[in-house]
């Protein structure tokens, strides 16, 4: 492995193809024999540091249309938190189901799951039939794994019946020294970014792009008012950027003055600190308080000069969904990709139908949307929001930060990269965007 790292650090990319692929590598795993370890413990107290292990695992056989990547850096996504606390289900069920698909898919069905759905690194080997990529290419990977054998997925690759999220519903993910991906997941690494910066947007940037910008999501247009929950978090920090970048006005919801400052540094002006305002949308476990929805809506109008949100960018789920449906403007869109606080949403349907609002479900992004979202990062129009970076051995702590919502933006993880700040190729472009990059990283 050291030879590979040395060649990458020396920027001898042409030499990579001549180096042997190690038979084993270190990867962050959950173990099948530990899925019951947190039984009886409340979700919030389940500690990813106990369930995520850095193990030496075998390098998988390389199949047609695939690539093995030397991973320089990766990032924490909420899906790794879900995997690490075995909620809502242990991910081994996903691997088992995938394994039934074909002998090659069977490789993924193992008693350990190497997690992680983002990477920045260098292609080590490509399998038969891969022509667009070669060893030595500097890449990032999006996390859409599809088979494309059914016509259902031919118009929008997210519609493939065998659609999976790599590193969550498949094995050999990015929180590791090596990763196995389908070559169609690969995209050029933005050349003005460091490894840890390049690794951090992938999943959330693509998701926010489809959810907010794409015709498949809310189809945001110039002049729209966009309410963004968790606006300094993983998804939200990209939704905020897309809104600002696309001529819309984000109304950023956050839970602390520090998080409000991050939104301000991205250029947002309308910010609500939900903790300071003390909204209690639920008066008890079963009952919502519409007067709190109204108070929230009035605050939004106060900030916007009277406009209600054209789009509500939803992901907290149960706790906020009733309020989200209420505050959207007449004819507005509530676009949701998650239910962090609970997936059984309750809202007053009168506000939806009488006001001709739409609820749109959105999930990750198709091949094209992922490519377009990455292109915006490469052009320096969208910036990474990685705020803290951990070594691979401390991935459990990194996941705990996200689980306890004590992070900001994205939390990065160094895999083969020995330290932060490496990997920039286009220094001139970086200098041009340095101010924004530093601000968005909270530096
Ligand atoms: P994140 O980095 O933790 O950010 C989420 C933010 O939402 C938090 O920082 C928090 O911000 C806010 N939030 C959390 N709970 C809330 C609540 N009860 N009420 C109001 N705001 C709340 O996570 P993320 O990466 O953005 O992911 C968010 C969710 O989306 C997760 O459930 C994840 O699994 C899901 N997701 C889905 C997809 C998909 O393709 N379907 C893709 C990515 C993520 P404040 O505390 O500042 O308000």
Based on the model shown, name its key terms.
443 residues; alpha/beta; Quinone Oxidoreductase, Chain A, domain 1; Rossmann fold; 2 domains; 7-stranded mixed sheet; 30% helix; globular; binds NADP nicotinamide-adenine-dinucleotide phosphate
Give the helix/strand layout.
Blueprint: H1 2-9, E1 24-31, H2 48-51, E2 53-58, E3 66-75, H3 78-84, H4 92-99, E4 112-114, E5 119-126, E6 138-141, E7 144-145, E8 164-165, E9 178-182, E10 186-188, H5 195-199, H6 202-213, E11 225-228, H7 234-245, E12 249-254, H8 257-266, E13 270-273, H9 274-277, H10 290-304, E14 311-314, H11 318-327, E15 333-336, H12 349-353, E16 358-361, H13 367-378, E17 386-391, H14 395-403, E18 410-414, H15 427-440
Parallel strand pairs: 11-12, 11-14, 12-13, 14-15, 15-16, 17-18
Antiparallel strand pairs: 1-2, 1-4, 3-5, 3-9, 3-18, 5-6, 6-10, 7-8
Helix pairs in contact: 3-14, 6-7, 6-13, 10-11
How would you sum up this structure, described in words?
The chain is an alpha/beta fold. The chain folds into two domains: 2-204 and 366-440, Alpha-Beta Complex (Quinone Oxidoreductase, Chain A, domain 1), CATH 3.90.180.10; 218-361, NAD(P)-binding Rossmann-like Domain (Rossmann fold), CATH 3.40.50.720. 30% of the residues lie in helices and 20% in strands. It is built from 15 helices and 18 strands. The protein has helices spanning 2-9, 48-51, 78-84, 92-99, 195-199, 202-213, 234-245, 257-266, 274-277, 290-304, 318-327, 349-353, 367-378, 395-403, 427-440, and strands at residues 24-31, 53-58, 66-75, 112-114, 119-126, 138-141, 144-145, 164-165, 178-182, 186-188, 225-228, 249-254, 270-273, 311-314, 333-336, 358-361, 386-391, 410-414. Strands 3, 5, 6, 9, 10, 17 and 18 form a seven-stranded mixed sheet that branches. It has a six-stranded parallel sheet with strand order 13-12-11-14-15-16. The chain has a three-stranded antiparallel sheet with strand order 2-1-4. Helix 14 (395-403) links the parallel strand 17 and strand 18. The chain is globular, with a radius of gyration of 21 Å. The chain starts with a helix and ends with a helix.
């Amino acid at each position: 492995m050291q030879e590979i790292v040395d060649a990458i650090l020396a920027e001898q990319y042409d030499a990579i193809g001549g180096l042997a692929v190690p038979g084993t590598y270190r990867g962050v795993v959950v173990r099948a024999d530990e899925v019951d370890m947190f039984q009886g413990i409340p979700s919030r107290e389940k500690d990813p540091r106990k369930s995520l292990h850095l193990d030496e695992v075998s390098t998988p056989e390389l199949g047609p249309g695939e690539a093995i990547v030397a991973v320089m850096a990766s990032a924490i996504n909420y899906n790794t938190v879900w995997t690490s606390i075995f909620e809502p289900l242990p991910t081994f069920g996903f691997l088992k189901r995938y394994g039934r698909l074909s002998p090659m898919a069977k490789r993924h069905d193992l008693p350990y799951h190497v997690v992680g759905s983002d990477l920045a690194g260098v292609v080590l080997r490509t399998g038969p039939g891969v022509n667009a990529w070669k060893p030595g290419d500097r890449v990032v990977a999006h996390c859409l794994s599809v088979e494309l054998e059914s016509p259902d997925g031919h118009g929008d690759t997210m519609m493939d019946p065998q659609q999976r999220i790599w590193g969550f519903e498949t094995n050999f993910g990015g929180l590791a020294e090596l990763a196995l991906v389908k070559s169609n997941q690969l995209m050029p690494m933005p050349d003005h970014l460091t490894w840890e910066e390049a690794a951090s947007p992938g999943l959330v940037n693509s998701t926010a792009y489809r959810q907010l910008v794409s015709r498949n999501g809310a189809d945001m247009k110039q002049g729209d008012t966009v309410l963004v929950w968790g606006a300094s978090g993983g998804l939200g920090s990209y939704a905020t950027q897309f809104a600002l970048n696309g001529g819309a006005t984000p109304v950023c919801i956050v839970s602390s003055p520090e998080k409000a400052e991050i939104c301000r540094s991205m250029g947002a002006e309308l910010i609500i600190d939900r903790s300071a305002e003390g909204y209690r949308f639920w008066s008890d476990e079963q009952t919502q308080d519409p007067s709190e929805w109204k108070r929230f809506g009035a605050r939004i109008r106060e900030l916007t000069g009277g406009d209600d949100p054209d789009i509500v960018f939803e992901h907290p789920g149960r706790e906020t969904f009733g309020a989200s449906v209420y505050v959207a403007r007449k004819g507005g869109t509530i676009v949701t990709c998650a239910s962090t606080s609970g997936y059984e949403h309750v809202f007053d349907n009168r506000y939806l139908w009488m006001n001709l609002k739409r609820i749109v479900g959105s999930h990750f992004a198709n091949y094209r949307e992922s490519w377009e979202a990455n292109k915006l990062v490469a052009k320096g129009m969208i910036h990474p929001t990685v705020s803290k970076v951990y070594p691979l051995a401390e991935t459990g702590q990194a996941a705990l930060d996200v689980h306890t919502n004590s992070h900001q933006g994205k939390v990065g993880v160094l895999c083969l990269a020995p330290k932060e700040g490496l990997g920039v190729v286009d220094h001139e472009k970086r200098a041009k965007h340095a101010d924004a990059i530093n601000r968005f990283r909270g530096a």
